[in-house]
Design goal:
The structure holds two protein chains of two kinds. Chain A is of the alpha/beta class. Helix content of chain A is 41%, strand content 18%. Chain A has helices spanning 11-16, 18-27, 46-58, 73-78, 82-87, 111-136, 164-181, 190-197, 199-202, 206-211, 220-234, 255-262, 270-284, 300-307, 329-339, 354-363, 378-384, 395-414, 420-426, 441-450, 463-470, 521-535, 557-560, and strands at 33-41, 61-67, 91-95, 140-143, 185-188, 241-244, 291-297, 319-325, 347-350, 429-434, 475-484, 487-500, 504-512, 540-545, 564-568, 574-579, 590-592. The model of chain B has no long low-confidence stretch (mean pLDDT 91). Chain B is an all-alpha fold. Chain B has one domain (3-81): ACP-like (Non-ribosomal Peptide Synthetase Peptidyl Carrier Protein, Chain A, Orthogonal Bundle), CATH 1.10.1200.10. Chain B is 62% helix and 0% strand. Chain B contains four helices and no strands. Classes of the chains: A alpha/beta, B mainly alpha. The A-B interface holds A 12, 15-20, 23, 44, 46-47, 206, 209-211, 213, 217-218 and B 13, 16-19, 39-40, 43-44, 46-48, 51, 56, 59, 62-63.
């Protein structure tokens, strides 16, 4: 994780030093997932690709690119293209701009003609998307349009049906409608990105007429950053929560010195207003399932007192973990992550103090701690980083904060039992374990992309992959939901088996969310998996374990289920087999499919 | 701005853009002399040079450049006109 690639980055530095930075990212090591990305451009895209590569590598994604010939996005999508077919993209990015709008209305056109022109323009892109969907079936990222660089009628352009501004707004609205109705289709909002950059700089025609870049080359890092954020989100590399400092981060002043009355938050003074707005911004994240935690050097009582300030937007209840003590912040941070069963790098550290940011990011590799200089930049710097870029929003996301809360209650309940099985029985767990169903495709794909630790094969699947396997008789698919007396954990585990010759079934995916570790859910799943194998006359189940930097916890997974190890490759890949007839059920604590 | 200073900065930019510390520019250096110097990298060079010297080039000016010497002349000319 390179700081230079976090917002606010220096676009000139990135453009000039891209080769060196790439080398640095690769040398830093760490594990990368490899993804094939096709860029279909309506103008030059070379620098867009180069910048995307840096940002993707920084997110643990090693891209291989296909780039269409200059302005051949339409041909590449609508006609067969052997090269692109061989390339087999995981993601397609259609990088078009208002330079690709062929015909705008003339002032003399009547309403019907204007509508027809809109139809024609929209249809061109609609053909591109349908063509790509049919041929490649992978996620598509499509730019909408930036606003025009001049306004013939001035302000009237926005309201008059002949105005280019109005025309582009209308097209963008139709693009958005398509995105609302189609999974696996994501808009890259260059209308916003160009406005954010500054439209007149963005549209400087020098770059188009000199080099056929449809935007200012200096703006390209911002565009590529946004595209890379969408991609990392699709592949499950979003962050999951905040770890927040208190003094001079959530309120102005130091509560230990100034007392509750002395800290600045709320409407009384302008500084307090900034902090209140910042707190509101953080609180809004809870709707996305982003969790909030506190890591503060303070007496615990003082921390709580500050959150009880009458004008505080955030209250004690909004946080999952509150660590307020005098331990080093990196140690608290690590503990928070451990107690939440999350990797430290999935939490974003927010602290106004550069020294604390330094120690946390030095001690815990991969943790992001955006630079915070002055209060009025806090929201901008967190927001523009796209840590939580939303590409899918499942019901589970909306409930995630509740789930973490419930988990904390379970931990408390556990303390009162001496026998672990008694504790599990006291949870009154109910499992639903069934073959994939359409309403869960999105969540299943999301889980396959997010799970790193409890993941035997680390294979990632898009929604279309999931759908294909669900409908193919050569696969046994299972999802598992878990409920207990504290609440609904949602869909937390997925298994996929592929049937092979000679009555063999090979497990190609087995994943589970870490929030239900040690609940015996894996046994309930395996019992059901084996039962379904028997139904299909399967005699032997084969399982693979492919080690990664993160999945050591499932190294002995198959042994726990009674598999025998057959093979260990030098790279640590192990192969296991199970004789279906010798399998005995192991789940004793979860009631399954009793609905 | 002296010619020497411009060369010093240009050398740094070229070395960064091509990630090659051995690059040593002189008046006659052109795209033939540096392996990766194609039309795409040309753009990156121009943008980096514009940012470094805080100036904008005219399309016509850029189109006519034949080698590094002419580029340096152009930078010095624009600098003295400011």
């Amino acid at each position: 994780m390179l700081k230079e690639l976090l917002y606010p980055f220096d676009p000139n530095y990135l453009l000039e030093n891209k080769r060196k930075i790439k080398k640095q990212l690769l040398e830093e090591g760490g594990s990368f997932v490899e993804k094939k990305i096709a860029i279909l451009g309506g103008s030059t895209t070379a620098a867009i690709r180069q910048m995307m590569e840096l940002f993707l590598l920084n997110n643990g994604i090693r891209p291989e690119f296909y780039e269409s010939e200059y302005n051949k996005f339409y041909e590449d999508a609508v006609f067969d293209n052997e090269e692109l077919k061989r390339f087999a993209p995981d993601i397609i990015y259609v990088c078009t701009t208002n330079r690709n709008i062929t015909t705008y209305p003339q002032l003399s056109d009547d309403e019907e003609t204007v509508n027809r022109l809109l139809e024609i323009e929209y249809d061109k892109f609609h053909c591109v998307w349908t063509g790509l969907k049919e041929r490649y079936g992978c996620p598509i990222i499509q730019n909408n349009f930036e606003l025009p660089m001049y306004r013939l009628m001035g302000n009237r352009e926005a309201s008059d049906i002949h105005g280019k501004v109005n025309f582009i707004h209308e097209l963008n609205r139709r693009f958005a409608e398509y995105a609302q109705k189609n999974d696996n289709f994501y808009l890259c909002d260059i209308e916003y990105i160009s406005a954010d950059y500054g439209l007149k700089e963005w549209s400087d025609p020098f770059y188009f007429h000199m080099y056929k870049y449809a935007m200012n080359v200096n703006a390209i890092p911002y565009l590529s950053f946004n595209v890379a954020n969408i991609i990392k989100s699709i592949f499950g590399k979003n962050k999951k929560g905040f770890v927040l400092d208190l003094d001079n981060t959530l309120w102005g002043g130091v509560i230990g010195d100034d007392g509750v009355e002395g800290i600045k938050v709320g409407p009384k003074e302008s500084e307090g207003q900034f902090y209140a707005e910042f707190q509101r911004y953080l609180k809004e994240h809870k709707q996305l399932g982003i969790i909030l935690n506190i890591d503060s050097k303070n007496e615990y009582e003082n921390a709580i007192a500050g959150l009880k300030h009458p004008d505080s937007e955030l209250s004690e209840d909004d946080f999952i973990e509150i660590k307020a003590n005098w331990d080093p912040k990196d140690r608290n941070f690590e503990e928070i992550a451990r107690e939440l069963d999350l990797l430290p790098e999935s939490l974003v550290f927010v602290d106004d103090n550069p020294a604390e940011r330094h120690i946390v990011t030095e001690q815990l590799k991969g943790v992001c701690a955006p630079e915070l200089d002055v209060t009025q930049h806090f929201i901008q710097y967190l927001d523009r980083n796209g840590f939580f870029e939303v590409t899918t929003l499942s019901k589970d996301d909306l409930k995630r904060n509740e789930m973490y809360k419930e988990n904390m209650e379970r931990v408390k309940a556990q303390a009162s039992f001496t026998d672990y099985k008694d504790y599990l029985l006291s949870l009154e767990m109910k499992g639903v374990i069934k073959p994939f169903e359409p309403m869960y495709y999105e969540r299943i794909s999301q889980l396959s992309n997010k799970s790193n630790q409890y993941n035997l094969t680390t294979r990632r699947y898009t929604v279309s992959d999931i759908e294909a396997m669900a409908n193919d008789k050569k696969f046994i698919t299972l999802y598992g939901k878990l409920l207990d007396r504290f609440g609904d954990n949602g869909l937390v585990t997925v298994a996929i088996g592929q049937l092979e010759d000679n009555n063999v079934c090979r497990i190609i995916l087995w994943i589970m969310s870490c929030r239900v570790l040690k609940r015996d859910m894996e046994y309930a799943m395996m019992d059901e998996f084996v039962r379904r194998c028997k139904e299909r006359d399967i005699r032997q189940i084969i399982g693979d374990y492919y080690p990664t930097a993160k999945n050591a916890m499932v190294k002995e997974f198959y042994a726990l289920h009674g598999f025998n190890q057959e093979l260990e490759e030098p790279d640590g890949h192990t192969v296991w087999t199970l004789d279906v007839n010798e399998y005995r059920n192991r789940n004793e604590v979860i009631e399954v499919n009793d609905d | 701005m002296t010619r020497e200073y411009v060369y010093q900065q240009m050398n740094r930019i070229f070395r960064n853009v091509f990630d090659d510390e051995s690059i040593e520019l002189h008046d006659e250096t052109n795209a033939e002399d540096i392996e990766d110097w194609d039309s795409l990298e040309q753009i990156n060079l121009i943008v980096a040079i514009e940012n470094e010297f805080e100036m904008m080039f005219d399309m016509a000016e850029v189109a006519e450049l034949a080698n590094v010497g002419e580029m340096v002349d152009l930078i010095l000319k624009k600098d003295s006109n400011e």
